[in-house]
Amino acid sequence: xxxxxxxxAKNRLGEVLRAALRHPVVITVHxxxxxxxxxxxxxxxxxxxxxxxxxxxxxxxxxxxxxANFPLEAIKRHSLANIERWRGTGVSGxxxxxxxxxxxxxxxxxxxxxxxxxxxxxxELRQSIPYVGMLPQSxxxxxxxxxxx
Length: 149
Prior knowledge:
The structure is a single chain. This protein is mainly alpha-helical. It has 2 domains: 1-39, YefM-like fold (3-Layer(aba) Sandwich); 49-149, no CATH class. The chain contains 8 helices and 3 strands; from the N terminus they run βααββαααααα. Helix 2 (13-22) crosses helix 3. The longest helix is centred in the middle third of the chain and has 19 residues, at 51-69.
């Protein structure tokens, strides 16, 4: 198990995510363990996966892929542009308002946690991900096929 401070995790995000694919990674805040990242594959489901479980896993994997492939600032810009575009077409709601608040907050770890955390709130937020459209369609299809097996 590797441990990173919140600042190290922010500055070395790709490295942290790659490490989490191999083994659990702990992120500390003020010297105390705060978040543990693990790969979806290494976390056994509590029950046989149903359609919603598969969708949750897919959205988690997509979020991990976005974080591994793009700087956080680019994710924020893309997300805010999507939220603004959706708001202009009348598609808005509490989830996008929550994402907007997280994105605009100076605590970047809050955004990372929302994107890849395994807690219920992070999972709820990922049901309406604002950074959709960042990954190549081929990667999305590959991840979807992986989860569907």
